[in-house]
Amino acid sequence: MSTSSSAKRGRFWRADWFVGVLIVLAVVILHQSTDFIGTLERRFYDFASTSTSRQPSDRIAVIAIDDQSVANIGRWPWPRDIHAQLIDQLTAAKAKTIVHTVFFFEPQTDRGLVFIRKMKEALGQAADAGGPAGGTNEQLSRVIAEAEVALDTDAKLAASMSKAGNVLVPSVFMLGEPQGKPDHPLPSYALKSAIDETNGFSMPAFKGQQPIDSIGNAAAGIAHLNQFQDVDGAVRQEPLLVNYYGKAVPSMALLAAAKSLNLSPGDIKLNVGESVQIGKLRVKTDEMALMLPQFYKGRDGRPAFAVDSFYDVLSGKIPAAKYADKIVIIGATAAGVGVQFPVPGYPALSPAETIAHITSSILGEHFIVQPGWGLWAAFGVFLLVAAYLIAALPRLSAGKAALVTLVLFVALLGTEFGLLSGAALWLKFVFPATLLVIGHLALTTKRFLVTEAGKLKSDEESAETNRMMGLALQGQGQLDMAFDRFRRVPMGDAVMDNLYNLALDFERKRQFNKAQAVYEHMAAYDKGYKDLQSKLNRAKNLSETVMLGGGGAHPGGTMLLDGGAVEKPMLGRYQVEKELGKGAMGVVYLGKDPKIGRVVAIKTMALSQEFEGEELADARERFFREAETAGRLQHQNIVTIFDAGEEHDLAYIAMEFLKGKDLVDFCKDGQLLPVPKVLSIVARVAEALAYAHRQNVVHRDIKPANIMYELDSDTVKVTDFGIARITDSSKTKTGLVLGTPSFMSPEQIAGKKVDGRSDLYSLGVMLFQMLAGVLPFRGDSMAELMYKIANEPAPDIRIIRSELPEQLANIVALSLNKRPEMRYQDGDQFAADLRAVLTSAGVPASQAPAVHSSMAAADKTAVFAVPSAEQGRAQADQTAVFSASPAGTFEATVVAAPASSPDYDLGHRSDAGGAEAFEKTVVAQSPVPQNQGPAGAGRTDLET
């Protein structure tokens, strides 16, 4: 009971849904305790809110106190008569509203002005005392009066502002809740621009700075210039009102917009908690009168608002008439003069340019709104994402989960982006989108780690299983399969011992090339293991040849000479150079005739090791019958047999050594030869078969692996008459089934007597595969494949390659007819039709020569039943026993085989050991006894 409860608790903690809950809580805590997700939200807002088609107002201009102006006019601060001069120019040009953002909080007094005023006072006192009042004193008084006017720049600026009647100047406040009464109430000139506000619909302030009295009284309005910065220092909101002890002072942008519409501060209406209204313009805000203005992006490489140099306007380079009827904003941008802030779409923007964007937003009602229901919408989306991570994601497969997560993520961010850029609504979906991504990655990682842990455990168990299987196979003498198993085991001391013993077993069987492979595999892990290096050197010296004969001391065998050199063995008059591979009859070696220097391929079979008694005599007879059969075939497209004999208990056949390679690779999709080349090759093979058939020789195993082709010389050779038989009546045994399943003719599968027309059927299968890249018949099991070959008509090759001419498709169909009498009767006829297609290249199928045929209408083939065939995938080292009834029905029973067997892909070629190619050849036999098993049964060998 306790064990079960503990297991349940363990599963509870590891459950995906519980991990999902933890992830949701962790992301919520991350959001509350850090600004990570908030930063992502603000960055996304900056990007989306500026990706809009809104255009800035063309009624706003900016004049910058820039570096060029400072360089030409002089160091900052300038005398205030400079500002007065620019204001006079703009007034003359009839600018609508002038917004001057420079602070005039202190009087600018020239030191000479003090002395001038003292002199003026002294002259006045002298006149009062009855002193001489001549012309000189009057002249001196006029000069002093002129000097006083010239040096009093504050008065000049105030005069210019008063004359203009449309200049706004800034005040600045310290934001925060007041704790008592103000140090100084707002001056009367500031009160003219303020609004009574006691509802808390504004940003509170407890201290402020105002312009000097002369300038404040001359200005058309006093507005605050406070910038409201986010936690990252960027300006995204505008406080439209700052509340100073019950008096709400409008922002510079708000007052500029009102003045440009000929409205006074009294015309500003407050819709508490909702909006600020000037005239018919309603500016949406939050409950603190904070506005989200639109910041405009530039177009075509130009900024949203053109910025002109103060000096260029003052000097007349830019005519003041440009600013007629416009809101002109004057402010500092020079280094060390003004302060710049990051805003959406801009890394740094001066206060003057910021006011330009905000003023344009107010006039165009281009603001961004956070609706009251937006918080609930974001919360609902958060719950949806949390439910998906906890309940839905754990139930989905990896692929579906990735797709659903991607769709949700794109939907969330796409919705927020679309609302911001299109409808100017800000719904904060970055938080649930971040939760979605983090949750998906965390759950996927958790699944991967659990899977990898299970896989590691499984790999450990699999490694031990492979090692034990290797030992078992080694004990049964199946050394190649044992090596394959040992290579799947991670290297260690135990498996090194196993591999060492396996290599010794290979040496005992004189398979030094395989012993070398084992030693090299071991050396890659530990070169210093025992006497590994000496063993490896000895195996290398012996690996290029073979020990022939029954005993190591046999005169014809390989001898290891002093110094490690090898004396190569002889077979007859041929010197054996090295092993080339395994053939259907045994080992194939590269040999050389020392007398004439001819290089040959030598096929061998150790008859005495494979057979004994009557079976040995029969095998020897069959082996030399093959040599006799193939030796009398002298044709340019058939491999030449030079010699045959028996020596050192080995029967051998010396034949022509062929360059090039077989046609297997040219049957794969993507590597197919051009159609004319295919027709030429198959035509030559057909002519070679016609010649062999005239010699009463049937090949019985025509397939791409048995056709050698050298591309450079365009040479074709039919090879491996290893299962050919003389077809005269005295030697042919009815019912012999020989061949490779996918290329066998229907009569060959049925165990009937075959003739040359069976080879032509196999050639038709090869033609189909070389043209289409696939076999005409395929099956998941041997029984299904053989049933299709015997019963189903071949598919039209133009279904796969529609561009092939009808004439060629007819040739393929004719060669694959189920009934021998209805297909090609000889190879010359087959070749002639193929060459006819070649000569008629480019002619439409309807005009091509007709295919030679003496056939009547096709008849249905007999049904080939497989009532109890194994339907699963067979294994390469399984043995299938076929039995045939008088009715021609086959039954197949799969005999048990080691579980380590490699997969058997019917009609395909596979690689094992990285080097050897395997072709599956079915050799079955009818109930006629042939000294190969009990009557009524035959054995199917899957030969390498």
TrEMBL record:
Span of domain Protein kinase: 574-838
Taxonomy, superkingdom: Bacteria
The entry's keywords: ATP-binding, Kinase, Membrane, Nucleotide-binding, Serine/threonine-protein kinase, Transferase, Transmembrane, Transmembrane helix
Comp. bias intervals (Polar residues): 923-933
EC number: 2.7.11.1
Chain sites annotated for binding ATP: K603
Region span, Disordered: 905-944
InterPro entries: CHASE2, Kinase-like_dom_sf, Prot_kinase_dom, Protein_kinase_ATP_BS, Ser/Thr_kinase_AS
Residues passing through the membrane, by range: 12-30, 373-394, 401-419
SMART domains per UniProt: CHASE2, S_TKc
One MF term in the entry's GO annotations: protein serine/threonine kinase activity
UniProt name for this protein: non-specific serine/threonine protein kinase
